[in-house]
Every structure is written in C-alpha cells, then in structure tokens.
Design a protein that fits this description.
alpha/beta; 10 helices; 12 strands; 40% helix; 18% strand; globular
Length: 290
C-alpha cells in the first residue's frame, strides 16, 4: 500500500508580518512531509516568486520536501523550468516536487506578456512542456519540435541524480489524459468539481496511463483542500472541517476515493495553531491506519 503523505500550503506573501520560511520550518518540526506554494507572480498583493521562495525554504530546512502548486506553463519557458527544477532538486538533496498546470487565468497570462491560448492550446502546451522538461533531464543534445514549445540540440548539465516527481493540477478530460500519460502525481483541489465526479476523473487518468504502457499506481493522487479543526465549524463542500475525529473521518473517506496524499490549505490568524492541532490530533490516527 502506498504510504500516505501530508503537506501544508505556505503563502508566497511578502506582506509585512508574513513569514513563509518560518512556517515551513515549523511544518518540518511537526512531521509534515512537504510544503507547497502557489504560483501567482502578477497582482497588487506583495508576493515572492514561487521557485525562489521554495529554494530559500529548502536552504533553511533539512528534511521536508518543497513543491510548486502549480507552476503555470505559460509563465516560463519549459527548458528554463527544467533547469531551475534540476538545480533546486540537486541543491536540496532531492527534495523538489515540480507541480505544473496549464494556466487558468488569462488575465494573469496576458499581464505577464504571454499569448493568451484557448483551453485546448493550453493542454497541448502543457503536454509539450513536460516532454521538453523530461527530455532536458534525461537526454544529451535534446531536440523537440512542437507547436507551442521547441528546443534544438539542448545540452543541460548537471542532470538530476534521481527522478523529479511531476504533479499536475488537472480537471478536464484531455488534461486528465495528459496526467495519465506523462505525470507522476495528480493534485486537484476540493471544490473545483463535485466530489462524486472524482472517481470518473481518476478512471480517465488510469485509462490513459494503461494506454501509454504505464501502471496507474505509478501516479499518486494528492488532494489539495482547505481544512480546519473546529467543533463549531459548519460543514462546507469545499473544505474539511469539524472536530478532530470528524476531520479524520472525512479524510479517510477521501482516502477511499484513491488519494494517498493531502495538501492542507490553512487560513486565518490562527493558521499556525491549526497546523499544530492537525499534526497532533489528526495525522497520527491517519498514519496508523494508512
């Protein structure tokens, strides 16, 4: 059975008083397996660039893994993503998880000077980007001619010493098929689709994996969700809330949908206390049962 993993989302906020590095260090002390950060470089709110912040977190921690959740492909050239991912993974001792997405915000894509693409073009671009990244990691003099992303005789050293996991945040049929064909992990968010649709989405991933000659169990499912231990909290369709026992039961139900990892999004001024409470009152029960 695949071991359960638990992560915490750290904000990329550069606002006064916010300290994502300190939060990540505390998550490591509490026994979480990874921290993750979203990728929204444009906007009026002060923020850090995701990969730079994750590099700084990795430098200030020793065990916990760091994950991008998720880098929008239209924001960066895939070959440079391959280089930064390999660099961060090597410098951190193999602790980087590369989360990628097709880029859902046309406004943000346009603000950063990238061409706005149709949904189909975004998915095609995502698939081509993964192929460029993996090619750069594994082949000398790599060449690829694609509609959206091309490289010619690309030499990139050093190459990763071990495979860097690629997780995709995908939902639509074609994107799910790309996940099954090319990814190591699937990290959707609770609330973006009705919960009863998740099994069919996972089946589409598995079918695409098998069609590509892969084993479906090679693709880990990680659910991104808001969570709060609070006995007085009202049930929400896009969050896990309630007493510690209720939270554990809800996460076990989600585990039953095939997820073997969870990324917790914490909010509010007491998010550190909530992170501690989850680690102390929920994670031991979940780890003990698998």
């Amino acid at each position: 059975m695949t071991e359960l993993i638990f992560g915490v989302g750290v904000p990329a906020s550069a606002a006064p008083g916010d300290d994502p590095v300190s939060m990540a260090q505390h998550a490591e002390r509490l026994g979480y397996d990874f921290v993750s950060a979203a990728d929204h470089p444009a906007g009026a709110s002060p923020s850090y660039e995701t990969t730079i912040m994750l590099t700084w977190i990795a430098a200030q921690t020793s065990r916990i893994k760091v994950a991008s959740r998720v880098l929008a492909v239209p924001f960066r050239r895939p070959a440079m993503v391959a280089k930064l991912a390999a660099s961060l993974d090597l410098l951190s001792g193999g602790r980087f998880i590369l989360g990628l997405g097709a880029g859902y915000s046309d406004q943000e894509i346009a603000a950063l000077g990238a061409p706005v693409l149709s949904p189909a073009e975004k998915i095609d671009g995502l698939a081509e980007a993964i192929q460029v990244i993996r090619g750069a990691w594994t082949h000398p003099g790599y060449t690829q001619r694609g509609r959206h992303h091309s490289v010619g005789d690309l030499e990139m050293e050093p190459k990763p010493t071990s495979p860097i996991p690629v997780w995709l945040g995908t939902f639509g049929p074609r994107a799910l098929a790309v996940t099954g064909k090319l990814a190591d992990g699937w990290i959707p968010s609770l609330g973006y689709k009705p919960l009863d649709e998740f099994p069919a989405m996972r089946r589409r991933i598995d079918a695409a994996a098998e069609a590509a000659g892969r084993r479906p169990d090679q693709i880990r499912g990680i659910l991104n969700l808001s969570i709060r231990i609070d006995p007085d909290a009202q049930p929400q369709p896009d969050a896990v809330t309630g007493s510690a026992k209720q939270v554990v039961n809800q996460l076990r139900d989600l585990r039953g949908l095939g997820f073997t990892g969870f990324n917790f999004i914490l909010s509010g001024p007491d998010r550190i206390a909530n992170m501690e409470q989850i680690a102390e009152e929920a994670l031991p029960a979940l780890r003990s049962t698998g």
